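Posting this for the archive.
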Amino acid sequence: MTRVVVTVMPREGVLDPQGQAVQGALGRLGFAGVTDVRLGRRIELELDGPDPRAAAQEMCERLLANALIEDFSIDLED
C-alpha cells in the first residue's frame, strides 16, 4: 500500500476569495507583512496497485481538482 498526497491549489491569476479573507483577517490580528495568501487542499490517499501515481493522476483529472481553476501536485510517501 502506498500513501499518496495530493495538493490542490488555485491556479496563479485565479481569484482566491478564501485566501483574501484569511489575508485580511491576519492583518486585523496584527500580523504585518503578509502580502499574499492562497488556500488549497491536501488529500491523503492509501492506494494499492502497480502504479499509484497514475491512479492518483486520473483521480485528480476526473474528480479531485477542477482543471479550469486549480493545479495539483502528487507526492508518494513511503
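The two ends are 9 Å apart (CA to CA). The CA atoms of residues 12 and 70 lie 9 Å apart.
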